[in-house]
From TrEMBL:
One of its GO terms (molecular function) is hydrolase activity. Transmembrane segments: none annotated. Coiled coil: none annotated. The keyword Nuclease does not apply. Its EC number is 3.-.-.-. It holds the Pfam family Isochorismatase. Residues 9-162 form the Isochorismatase-like domain. This is Cysteine hydrolase family protein. It comes from the Bacteria. Keywords: Hydrolase.
């Protein structure tokens, strides 16, 4: 893996905002990867120490009642992964961080062709961004223990655990849009 991590590799942290702790998200059951924020913090620390590019994605919901709506107390980044001065913050209104944000141009403008991705929700914004980035030609590593999701019923109404939802999302992406890895493969 060290050959992957060069100066053409950026860390992309998606939607790790206070909003994700609101009770609404766990209405069907608890999330998986309860230590994901700590894992993200470790990766971010090592990334900063290596002076590599970091991009923070922030969801700016256009729905006034959303926990991700700008101006609400839950819109801000969680302390574990809060951006430092000089780190890029990308605001998005769609599920993919590449839709209407200029992210692709910023990455390519800096010569970045590889992404290491962490964030929330695995089967929503993380999956949409990884699929989109893969289709744009970026080489992507997705850190499975630095992402999480929540229990949710499937299309037939069967309640799936957060780990089941997470695992299916990873299976959808691995091999075609990214390579799924554990944080221990990077740290």
């Amino acid at each position: 893996m060290p050959e992957f991590l060069d100066q053409n590799t950026a860390l992309l942290i998606i939607d790790v905002q206070k909003a994700i702790d609101e009770a609404f998200w766990s209405k069907y059951g608890p999330r998986n990867n309860p230590d994901a924020e700590q894992v993200m913090a470790e990766i971010l620390k090592s990334w900063r120490e290596a002076d590599r590019p970091v991009f923070h994605v922030r969801h700016d919901s256009v729905n006034a009642g959303s926990t991700y709506a700008p101006g609400t107390p839950t819109h801000g980044f969680k302390a574990e992964v809060a951006p430092l001065a000089g780190e890029v913050v990308i605001g998005k209104t769609a599920n993919s961080a590449f839709v209407g944000t200029g992210l692709e141009d910023q990455l390519k403008g800096q010569g970045i062709s590889k992404l290491v991705v962490a964030g929330v929700i695995t089967n929503n914004s993380v999956e949409a961004t990884v699929r989109h980035g893969g289709n744009l030609g970026f080489d992507i590593l997705l850190i499975e223990d630095a992402c999480f999701t929540f229990a949710f019923p499937d299309y037939a109404g069967t309640l799936r655990t957060a780990q089941d939802v997470h695992n299916m999302s990873l299976a959808n992406m691995d091999g075609e849009y990214c390579r799924v890895v554990k944080s221990t493969d990077l740290l």
